[in-house]
Automatic annotation (TrEMBL):
It comes from the Bacteria. Signal peptide: none annotated. InterPro entries: Alkaline_phosphatase_core_sf (IPR017850), DUF1501 (IPR010869), TAT_signal (IPR006311). SUPFAM superfamilies: Alkaline phosphatase-like. This is DUF1501 domain-containing protein.
Amino acid sequence: MSARTTSFASAAPHLIPRRGFLRIGALGLGGLTLPNLLRAEAAAGVRSPHKSVILIYLVGGPPHQDMFDLKPNAPKEIAGPWKPIPTNVNGIQICEALPHLAKIMDKLVVVRSLVGNQADHDAIQVYNGFDPKKPTPAGGWPQFGSAVAKLQGPADPAVPPFVSLCYTCTHGPYNEPGPGFLGPALTPFRAMGPTRDDMILRGVTVNQLADRKSLLKKFDDMRRDRDSSGDLKAMDSFTEQAFGLLTSSRMAEALDLSKEPLRVVERYGTGDPKVFMDANGAPRVPQSLLMARRLIEAGARVVTLNYSKWDWHGGMNAEGRANNSIFLREQEDFPPFDKCVSALVEDLHDRGLDKDCTVIVMGEFGRTPKISAQVGRDHWPAVNCALMAGGGMKTGQVIGSTDRIAGEAASRPVTFGELFATLYHNLGIDADKATLADLTGRPQYLVEGSAQPIKELI
């Protein structure tokens, strides 16, 4: 990226928040607004297709044995009340509360034997595939989207390669870990909240914007040789994104769900983004999945989002009766989840995006086979479950199996390295060869060990 940011004599560059660099007013360009200008390219024509990934994090760890790995013949204290139902793929059954997904199982892959999970509420492994308890390079491992942005760059100069739709959770470890040793220039573009209000030009024409961009470059050239922190390099990328966003309508259009037919929005469902589930989780916002699809169509390579809160340990009221049963919460959360995920997968197929866009849905660990006295399921790192779709993969199958109580992998254990190697493969990146330079200049591989893509899927 060739554009340069401005520097301020009165403030150290690293103290200026990233949002300030998206806000052209903070760049000395006057007020920032985006109305009619960004709609000018709405009909920009058909772009060449690009490979992409939508990563959906189920905050807190969903119960695998109540969703995609039911054990109806296990004792009641393990099996729970849900019954399995057949899907449209012979021999595959899932929870009766997921009927929409059952109807499109031929378009899905269930990984029932994901091993090597962490035991704590920490989203880092979901976002980068590395065990947080193992040694990490200085600066930390970059999350998946940051690595992809570094290796492949933008598919469209006006759309960031990595966009985050994640809401900030009050429990810090639930949040995205960031770009790690790749540095702040590879931080995801955060499209939610106040940032969207900054994507607006007020009283500045495109030509004026170009002139001021040139002026910024001249100012910054004077300070370039003095910077040794890397902050200006990061600011370069932020400013380039800001100028690109302001001179193209694609991002604004992608984030505007009013452009979608009402029937499509209703198919996904909607939720209140201001209601954070159980206070410290993420909001239950099905429309985020629709927005992710729109961002992929606009040109993003990786879109991440967090969805609801799945940490259901149960609880008792004053009379000693269960009042926060895991199964009551499942009755509440399963239907909208079933609806929005199936809508996304069907939408990708209907739009011809199923060969190019990979969808992956997972949490940080599985859940205990035995239902607790508080009518909940606790943390269970021994085995986990993931749902995948698209990406040109061989769908309509289950990878791996667990024992009779869904407590351990019984066949074909799948590692996080294999899972992420598959995601990279679907993007056209060979995780066995590609490397990223860490802070010392040492090349680091993208996945743990020498993991290969899941052979059953490619």
